[in-house]
# Entry
Amino acid sequence: MYGWHGRLLRVDLTHQKVSIEPIAPQVLKDYIGGRGLAIRYLYDEVNPQVDPLSPDNKLIFTTGPLTATTAPTGNRYMVVTKSPLTGALAHSNSGGDFPTWMKRSGFDMYIFEGRAESPVYVWVNEDDVQIRSAEHLWGKEVPETTDALLAETHPEAKVACIGPAGENLALMSAIMNDKHRAAARSGVGAVMGSKNLKAVVAMGKKNPAFYDDAGMRALSVELSKEVGVDVKKGSNLRIYGTAYVPQVTNALGILPTRNFQAGTFEGVDKIDGVALKNTYLITHKPCYRCPISCGRLTEVPEGKYAGKGEGPEYETIASLGSACGVDDLAGLLKANYRCNELGLDTISTGLTIAAAMEMYEKGIITEEQTGMPLRFGDADAVIEMVNRIGYRQGFGAILAEGSYRLGERYDHPEMSITARKQEFPGYDPRGSQGMGLLYATSNKGASHMEGDVAYEEVFGVPVKSDPLSTEGKAELVARFQDAFALIDSGGICVFFAIRYVFTKERMVWPIRLTQLLNLTTGANYTPEEAMQAAERVYTLERMFLLKAGSGPEQDTLSPRLLHEPLPDGPAKGRVVDLDKMLPEYYAYRNWPRGVPAPEKLAALGL
Amino acid sequence: MRVRVKLIANYMKLLPPGTKGNTFELEVAPGVTIGDVLGPLGVPLDDSTVLLLNGYQVEADALLSEQDMITAFSAIAGGDRSLSQPDAQKITM
Ligand code: SF4
# Structure
C-alpha cells in the first residue's frame, strides 16, 4: 500500500488492551484519511447519543495520506470525537511535529476507547505499544508533563497531552502537542481527561512509500518554491503571523470587541502583529516542513507577565484581547501562555470570560459570584479567570462549562456568543454575512476551521466579495466547507492548501491537491472524485449530528447576532440575515429542511 | 480636501518615510480616486490587494470625498498571493 499504512492502533483503556487492525483500502480511498477516515469510524462505532464524557465515547487521532510526506505543510493531524461542549462533532486540527511522528509510528489512526481506572499515558514506538501509569503526571501542566515524558520515553519522541484543564473536564480544554500547538476546540481535552488518558507519546521510522516517489518529490519542491517565492517577497504570515489580522478586521468593523458589543476596538494598535514584532517577538516558528512559518515564538522577559511560549495568533488576540477589552499586550501574552500551559482553547476561554465580564458590568452577576471584579480591559482578571478555569476553582468551575451554559444559568443567552454552544472565532458575522451562515451550519459548531469564508469576505481569496452582502454566500459556504473537508482529510495546512483549491470563478478545482494525493497514494482520484469524497465526509458528519440531536433546529446563532444591530463601524446597523441564506444553503446542498435528501446520500454512496 | 490612508502589515513599507504607525493624512483635489493616491505609493492595484473606503470594499476607481479613510492590504493565501491554480489544461494528471 502507498501513502497510507492501512493500519490502525486500537487502545482499549478499560481492559488495558492494545490491538492493531487493518483499514480496508476502499474505505481509505472513499474517505481519504484524517477527518474523513475518522468520521467513518466514529459514525460506525459510537452511538451519536452517547454522553461525550462517558467511556462509551471514543477519542480518535488521525493523520492523512499527506501527513509526514514531502508535501509542504504535510504536518497535520485531527482529533475527532463527540464533543462535550457542543453535543455534536469535534474535529480539531493541529500541526507542529507530533502528527508527523505519529504517522511514522506506523499507523494512520489511533482509537482510544473506554476509560482507564487510573491515569495512564500511551507510548507508541512503532509496534511496541505500552500503556503506562501517569499517576505521577496527573495535575501537572503541559510543559512539565511534556518534559517528563520525553525523559522517560525517548528524547526524540513527540508528545500530545492534556493539562489540568482536560483532567478537570473543562469543556473548552485542548489537547496540546509539542507544548505549544493545540487541537484546541470543542473540548477534546475533556474527552481525553474523562478517559484518564494524560498523554500520547509517539515515534518511529515507518513511513509508507509514495506511489510515485520521483513525481511526489518533484511536485513538492515545485510547490514549496512557489510558496517560497511569495514568502520571500514579504509574506504577512511570515513577518507578522496571523497577528496582523486585527488591523484588517478592525478596518472592516468585525473585530470582536467587549463580547461582540462592538466591531471596532480602540486599542487595536497595541495588540496587533506590528506591536508584537516591535516588542516581544523572538522569531517566527514553523510546523514541520512548512515554508510559510506563521508561528510566533515570543517572550515577556520580566515583570508580572513574564513568560515565554508560542503565540499569540489572531484568534487569541481577538478572544483574550479585544473581546475582553484588553489592550495590554504583555497581559494578553500571559493569558495566552497560561491557556497553553493549562491546556485550554483560547477562543472559548476568552469568549466565556468576555461573557462573564459583560454580565458583571451590567450587574447580572456580582463579586459575590465571581470572587473578584470582572471588568473589560482588566488583563489581570482575565489571567486569573484562565487559571481558575483550568483548575476549576471558585467561579472558574462555572466558566469551565463555557459561555452557553453561563448564559443559561443567569438567564442571558444573548451574552453567549455561540453556535451549537461553541464560541465564535474572531469575525463578527454581522459584518461578514457568509461567516454567519458558516457558523450556523458548521458540524463542529462555530469555527473558522470548517470552511473559512473569511478568506473571500475579508482577504479577497479566491475573489474579492462584499462581506455585507448575502448574495451567493450559500454556495460559497458549502464549497468552502467541502474544500476544508478535503484539506483536513489530506493532512495538510489550510494556509498552504487554500491557494490550490479555488478557481477565479469561485469553483472548487483542487487539481494540485489531487495530484499530491495521487502521487502519494496511487488512488488515481480525479479532482471531481476528490471533491465528491470531501462532500461525502461533510455529509456523513451531518448525519452524525442529526442522530446526535444537533440537527436543523441548531443551525442558528446566538440572539445577539440575529437581533442586535452592530452599533459601530462599516457594518453598523446590520444583523446576520440568516433567514435568507439558510434556505439557499439547504437548497444548494439538497438538504430539504436541513436533512440530506435520500438521492443525495445515494449519490455519495452513503 | 483631506483624506487618511491606512496601509496594513506588509504594505506599511510603502508608507511615506517618517509615517508614525500605519496611517497618514494627505490633501487631495476633488475628482481624485483611490488608485490615484495608492498607485504612486506602489500599492498593487490588482486582485492581490483589498481596498476599503471607510471600511467598505471598493475598486481602485472609487472617488474620494473629504475625511475619507482609505485602507489597503494584501489578499492572502499561503504566501500572500491570491491564487496559484494552474490552468487545468496545463496539468496532466
Ligand atoms: S502555515 Fe503556520 S500553521 Fe500552517 S503549517 Fe505553517 S507554521 Fe504551521
About this structure: The pocket of iron/sulfur cluster is lined by residues A 73, 75, 95, 286-287, 290, 292-295, 493, 495 (CB under 6 Å). Strands of chain B lie at 2-7, 23-27, 49-53, 56-57, 69-74. Helices of chain B lie at 34-38. Residues 77-82, 88-93 of chain B have pLDDT under 50 and may be disordered.
